[in-house]
Structures are given as structure tokens and as C-alpha cells.
């Protein structure tokens, strides 16, 4: 049974793909092709099938992923899904490989920064459902971090997803107006109130 990689290992930055391919030796090895700007990210398929992936990072060349670098950690958005071959589907999130549909049992999300919740909540209103990707761009944060903060806000009752249950958009949850509590009939306080008003026999 194959043991999938749980983290990526950054090997080098090169100018051309043919310089990077020989550096992909183990599942999860990564090489950045950078020529004036990030061009592509080469990944030795983390499921151990022996294949490699070239993730386009240059929007001028068509559909492109967004590369995020935070310190020494790399993240990609959106997820990577091989349409052929082993059909691996995974997220690269702060050097962690988060598997989708397969190998999920061993997934470990990166450390959580609870302060991001306040920033995400401040970016919301009670009318429009905002895409988490839009919020991430506004806050200059990794989309996966924003999506997790959004999930925590929804779990805490401070935000909500749309009725169609799409989890890529959310809004601030409208606060319920509190109605004044009606006095209970028959209780001691009600009896005292009626006594003072002369309503008791």
C-alpha cells in the first residue's frame, strides 16, 4: 500500500523546467520555476504514483493557480486535482498536503491563528454573502486560512452560509432582536405587582 506524502519539500528555484525535473525524487518534492516571475510549480505527485505535476502560476499562459509564500511556507489556491492518471486531489496549505477524498484520515491542518476571525468578521455585513476568496484578497491572507476562520465563525453563530449550503461564501449573521420578557402570571412578582396596583382581592 502506498504511503502518501503529508508535506511538501521545497528543493530549489530554477529558471527552466528541464532543470527542475531531475530534482523531483520523492513524493511531495517541489521545485519553483521562476523566470522574472513565478511561472510554474513542479510537484512529484504526493500519492507516490511516480508521476509529476506542473502547476501553472502565470495567468498569461491560461488557467493559473495562485502561489502564496508566508515565511518558508508555500500554499496554493485552488486545490490540485489530477484529471487523469492517479486522479489525486489535494490542497497545498502552508507546506501541508491536505488530501481530499483519499488519505483523509491523516490530514493535519496548519496551526490556527484565532485573531483572523475578527478580521474576517469585520469584512462581513448582514446582507451580502461574500466569497471567502474575495475576503482573502482584501485581507492579503491565504484563502484556506480565511475559509477555516469562516467555518469557525459559522460554528460560533456569528456568521452563516447561504441556504444552498455553499461554503465558499458567507455573511454576518443578523442579531435577533430581543423582546422584553412578559411578566409571568401567577408568580410571586406578578402577585406583588397586582397587589401594588390594587388588582388583588
Description:
The protein has 201 residues and is of the alpha+beta class. The protein is 20% helix and 26% strand. It is built from 5 helices and 12 strands. The protein has a 4-stranded mixed beta sheet with strand order 1-2-3-4. A 3-stranded antiparallel beta sheet has the order 7-8-9, with no helix packed on it. A hairpin with a 3-residue loop joins strand 2 and strand 3. Helix 2 packs across helix 4. The longest helix is centred in the C-terminal third of the chain and has 13 residues. The mean pLDDT is 89.
Strand content: 25-35%
Please give the largest β-sheet: 4 strands, mixed
Number of helical regions:
5
| Main sheet: strand order | 1-2-3-4
Distance between the termini: 85 Å
- Overall strand count: 12
> Can you give the helix content as a percent range?
10-25%
Overall mean pLDDT score? 89
- Reading the helices and strands in chain order gives EHEEEEEEEEHEHHEEH
Cα gyration radius (Å) = 26 Å
Uncertain stretches of 5 or more adjacent residues:
none
The coarse silhouette is elongated
Supply the helix-strand structural class.
alpha+beta
List keywords for this structure.
201 residues; alpha+beta; 4-stranded mixed β-sheet; 3-stranded antiparallel β-sheet; 5 helices
